[in-house]
Amino acid sequence: EFACEQAVCPMPMQAMGGDRPLLMSNISSLSEAITAQSCGADGIGLFRTEFLFMGRDSFPEEEEQFETYRAIVSSFGPGSPIIIRTMDVGGDKPLALLMLEDEDNPFLGNRGMRISLMRQDLLRTQLRAALRASAYGNIKLLFPMIATMGEWKQATAIVEEVKTELSRSGTAFNHHIETGIMIEVPSAAIMADRLAQEADFFSIGTNDLIQYTMAASRNSPSLRELHDPLQPAVLRLIHRVIRAAHDRNKKVSICGEMAGETAAVPLLLGMGLDAFSVSNEALSSVSRQLSLQSERWDKEYLRQSALEVMDLDHASDVRRYVEHRFPELF
Ligand code: PEP
Ligand code: MG
Hints:
Blueprint: E1 22-27, H1 30-39, E2 44-48, H2 62-75, E3 81-85, H3 113-118, H4 120-133, E4 138-143, H5 149-168, E5 178-183, H6 186-190, H7 192-198, E6 201-204, H8 206-214, H9 232-247, E7 251-254, H10 265-270, E8 275-278, H11 283-296, H12 299-309, H13 315-325
Parallel strand pairs: 1-2, 1-8, 2-3, 3-4, 4-5, 5-6, 6-7, 7-8
The structure holds phosphoenolpyruvate and magnesium ion.
Magnesium ion is lined by residues 144, 184, 205, 207-208.
């Protein structure tokens, strides 16, 4: 497993006029959380909890999940955000335990929140565990593969029911826990202005959002030119999502691989992205890129760049533009 050689340099706080974007980690286990903390991450931007469910003969019980979530929160300070995404199986992460029927096209089938809403017993157990752990730090809940307002309403109604249950039994939890939406289905991106009125925050899952927007598999090397974060259609969509959230004073992070792509970083800064969440392996390089921002590029220069790429027609033009405007990155 990856271990950082040296702590990531803390990024200069004067960046972006006093506030800087957060740099967080994507993890799938407690040990990765410990590594993230020792590498200097600001928190956990994405805990892929499905890995707690995989490779075993029975579903993890509430107590086991609670202990894992609590240990992750405790590995960071009480203020650091720890974003727990509910189980996101299906698609590229089948779970035999669920005994679901095979599908012709699993990426367009039962995935993520759709499964959690079918198996509310599992969702409720997971929410109870995460809510109990929220008494120990800044846990936030994140729902994957939300495609409609209805799914979001159902998810949050279940959160409210679980909270009521915990209150009745006198169990401690954070009554003001934030709940967020993963924007990774184009329908959610299109509805972002409405969803932003409802959710506390967005996290853009670009791995899936690009795949569904470009109709190009995230795992197919021959389609890499289509599954490209610099595709103008992708940049326009992300820009709209960020604006929709900011219009409602909501924060947006990106937890897909795009957040760690060198050529995308200055554009995302120019769009005003609030947090970058990347693998532990990518923390130090993204940290370096984010600190360049404060040393060399002012906010207006970044903003102008993000606007100018909106008028380009090809990903290759965007790449050339970034190389020309930000030579120090390459
Ligand atoms: C994404 O889709 O970009 C994402 C972060 O989720 P996952 O890679 O787990 O599908
Ligand atoms: Mg995803």
